[in-house]
Amino acid sequence: MTTPLNLAETSALTSNLPRPSPDAPRRIGRRLVATVAAAATVLGLLAGSAIPARADNDDLAKALAALAIVGIIASQVNKNRNRAQAQQPLDPYPHHKPRPSHHPRVPSVCAIEISGNSGTATVYGESCLRDEGFTYRLPQHCARTARIYGRNDRIYSDQCLRDAGFRVGGPRY
């Protein structure tokens, strides 16, 4: 007579045993269901052909119940078949989107060039930037007040905006 093993001994013995794959029970179950469904269909057809022309209500009820069971089994097989989704094929040439820029581009349509004795400077008016949909916070240490087209406005030099991390020039954004 053998002595029962405790939990530690049992786990030590079974730790080296191969583990079944998670797909194995599902495949066996599908095959079993398909076999049972096929057998029920064959039996239903044989029983249906053996029913005499004058069957009473009990025989008709039994035949309908058998057909209903076959239908339920077939629908379960189809439902399980639909759950298994095919993997999407890997794209051999993945198309990576460009990384979003963390440095917003200042709209170039707002650039105003000012010529003077010491050269040309490019500045951007705050009201134009806001009209163009530029909603980022502008650095206050770059702001200077100036009169543009008859209105007082804050302007920002392109070099100061560049130093603050903005991208200056190019297309709208």
Automatic annotation (TrEMBL):
The chain crosses the membrane at residues 32-54, 60-77. Residues 1-26, 80-105 are annotated as: Disordered. Keywords: Membrane, Transmembrane, Transmembrane helix. Residues 95-105 have a biased composition (Basic residues). Residues 1-18 have a biased composition (Polar residues). InterPro entries: TAT_signal. Coiled coil: none annotated. This is Uncharacterized protein. It comes from Paragemmobacter kunshanensis.
